Structure formats: structure tokens, C-alpha cells
Amino acid sequence: MAGKSWSFVHDRRVIELAKASKSLEEAARIMNRTPERIRKVSIRLGVSFKAATKKKRIQK
Question: Structural domain of residue 34, as residue ranges?
């Protein structure tokens, strides 16, 4: 199954989101793409995303 096409503009957006310290999941949501696709593109472009952080529960 073919997905959406990818362009230079999308590459630039991935780079911008990585520089803005977005997580992989945030970038995927913002770009309406799968996290796996964003990961593959970021590897090709040589950029990395911060690790998704889970919220800690405060125990009382």
C-alpha cells in the first residue's frame, strides 16, 4: 500500500521539529504521518528526536 507522497518541504519540516525538541510521536501527530515514517525520514536526514517522556505519577 502506498502512503502519502514526501517532498523537500516535508524533509525541512522534520528537521524543524527535531530542532524544536519535539518527540517522535509529537512530530508524527503534527505532520499526520506514522511515527515509523518520521523515524525513517529522520534517519535519512541525520536528525534525531528526543525520547518521548512519560508523565510521572505523584504518589501521596
Answer: 8-45
Cβ burial 20-45 (10 Å sphere, 16+ → b, else e): eebbbebbbeebebebebbbebbeee
pLDDT mean over 22-39:
95
Q: Is residue 22 in a domain?
A: yes
Asked whether residue 60 is domain-assigned, the answer is no
Q: Give the mean model confidence (pLDDT) for residues 11-40.
A: 95
Alpha helices in the chain (DSSP H): 8-19, 24-31, 35-45
The confidence band for 1, taking pLDDT boundaries of 50, 70 and 90, is very low
Measured in whole angstroms, the distance separating CA 49 from the mean position of its chain's CA atoms is 6
